[in-house]
Amino acid sequence: MIALQNERGIIAVDCGGDLVQKMLQAGLPLDRLEAIVLTHAHPDHVCSFPLVMQRLWLSGRRRSIRVIGPESALSVAKTLMSVFQLDECDGMPRIDWQVVSRDSVGQPLGLDSWRVTVSYGEHSVESIAVRFEDPLTGSAAAYSSDTEPHDNVIALARGAAILVHEATGSGPGHSSAEEAATVAARAKVERLLLVHLPPSHAINGASLERARAVFADTQLGEEGGRYPF
Ligand SMILES: [Zn+2]
Ligand SMILES: [Zn+2]
Question: Where do the structural domains in the chain lie, given as residue ranges?
Fold first, then answer.
């Protein structure tokens, strides 16, 4: 999960854990959360969406929230909301669902806080990569979500200050650390953060060194880490 904050508001990406708890730990005010992007319909990216909505509701938030993603991801989020009958809770913030499709590529999504654009990576289900540009400074960050190394992600991330790229490991639908570094180098970003690391073992020093040989400014993303840009 990632949250992007500027003076205009906050956009969060994916709900694979307790997003609200993490936001509170990070000192991010819940009422400034403008939108949540759900990149794809896998459980590690969408499973805790109802928990997030319940916690927002319990926090007293009543302002509506935009939830953005491919149809398949939003469909899972809606199903989870109905499983827990949260859509029937009195005072639950209204959800403004915004479906993105391949027609949305390159089109700003019309948010107030960040200029957000998406493109499609290559994963076992439809999955979007997301670019966030500060409307005042033009400074940008991009997030690959789950994908093989892909030209669409390179184009989306071009010139960004930070690329957050998955490094689950080489294979269909995912990328190794070295492959992520190749994407960063080709996109000419300033800095690469590797996330979505293999569940069974951390990235070892050797694979991080191989990535740094391709793209020097490569780091492992840290839980709770803050990355100004
Ligand atoms: Zn996935
Ligand atoms: Zn994943």
Answer: 1-114, 139-222
Q: What separation in Å is there between the alpha carbon of 70 and the centre of ligand 2?
A: 15
The Cβ-side half-sphere exposure at 167, using a 13 Å CA radius, reads 29
b/e code 123-146 from CB counts within 10 Å (16+ = b): beebbbbbbbbbeeeeebbbbbbb
Q: What is the pLDDT of residues 8-40, one digit of tens each?
A: 999 999 999 999 999 999 999 999 999 999 999
Is the CB of residue 174 less than 8 Å from the CB of residue 144?
no
pTM of the model: 0.97
Sign of the four-CA dihedral 21, 25, 28, 31: positive
- Which residue, 124, 195, 189, 202, is CA-closest to 153? 189
Q: Which ligand is in closest contact with the Cα of 73?
A: 1
CA distance to 55, 57, 60, 81, 156, per residue, from 92 (Å): 10, 5, 9, 11, 34
Q: Give residue 28 CA to ligand 2 midpoint distance, Å.
A: 24
**Class of domain 1-114 as given by CATH:** alpha beta
Q: Where do the DSSP E strands lie in the chain?
A: 2-6, 9-13, 33-37, 65-70, 95-100, 115-120, 128-133, 140-143, 162-166, 191-195, 218-220
Within 8 A by CB and 6+ apart from 206, the residues are none
Q: How many angstroms separate the alpha carbon of residue 71 from the centre of ligand 1?
A: 15
